[in-house]
Amino acid sequence: MEEQFDFDEVLKEFRSGKKLTGKGGLLSPLIKQLTEAALEAEVESHIANDVLNGNKNRRNGVNKKTIKGTSDGTFELETPRDRNGTFEPQIVKKHQTTISNEIEEKILSMYGLGMSYNDISSHIEEIYNVSISTATISTITDKIISKVKEWQSRPLDSIYPFVWLDAIHYKIKDGGKYVSKAVYTVLGVDMEGKKNILGLYLSESEGANFWLSVLTDLNNRGLKDILIASVDGLKGFPEAIKTIFPQTEVQLCIIHQIRNSIRYVASKNHKEFMSDLKPVYQAVSKEVAEQELQKLDEKWGKLYPIVIQSWQNKWENLSVYFKYPPEIRKVIYTTNIIESVHRQFRKLTKTKGAFPNENSLLKLLYMGIQNATKKWNMPMWNWNLTLSQLAIFFEGRLEDELKI
């Protein structure tokens, strides 16, 4: 084996201006070292299996070939041989002349599963018998940032029937201290009924003004129309959406409203209050819901006026879903669909506590999105029926896309 990859020396050369990747890149020796270590493990396993099965076999030198690594970078790879000629390497096959970042992708894959740098380093050393510092792994994962930037600015479809918008908060180091910042997530369903994360945005706080800039960015990237947007109860959110997408119907999340309401109800009254509230949001029609809301006011209005007033003041946007059939109602009445994405984020970040900078957070969330979207290869349930219903409710806005 060649000498160990010297991160300190690489860091010194990187600071002096030498490239990490490409021809003569600083990471090429690491990729070569990892690849040859993996090949060594493969041939030893192959020979051990032969011996176990009663076949004589042993090492028989190496073959050398030039391998193209990342970008224009190349290096000479030594592939071990066996005496019987039966060894077929898998990580870099016999006639393969590129490795397409395979080693790096293995590191990134582990990183995308939420493994810490220390865990990744230990895992690589256990499998390949190669020592890699956490600083080196950080350098490799930083290459995700360019993909994140490209992904954040990619063109969008002109129309998404459903869009959900919500925020999740993290501690990030800023100006020498850790502050709470909001990550704004935008999830859309396209005309084929498939879910897409349209964007991630960071801000120091969750507010309607910043949401306005988010919506403007979506518009600039090609999004021209949203039929129904589901959001939480943030003040000014519906108005921000209407500023950029004036035809969009805005549904406030019923689940958020219920959670916020129960916070102001004495615990001894929780069960009874929730029993009286259920007929409001589970009503068969808006008219019935309003009758039940009036009953709720008559019984609880004097005891909990803030709660009842909140429902009344937001009723225009809380009650949007009543006009639609069940197929559409269950899609739009809550932002739970985007909260499931945030649960995926939390799985990845639960061991992190806080992040040294915004990029360290964004690259991990981006990997979380890649993992989540692997399962999003099928349209939403009963999508054709839902789409035909939308075409009736939003006459004239889907014809170009449906080609009818």
Automatic annotation (TrEMBL):
Keywords: DNA recombination, DNA-binding, Transposable element, Transposition. It holds the Pfam family Transposase_mut. Residues 58-67 have a biased composition (Basic residues). InterPro entries: Transposase_mutator (IPR001207). Residues 58-82 are annotated as: Disordered. Required for the transposition of the insertion element. Belongs to the transposase mutator family. This is Mutator family transposase.
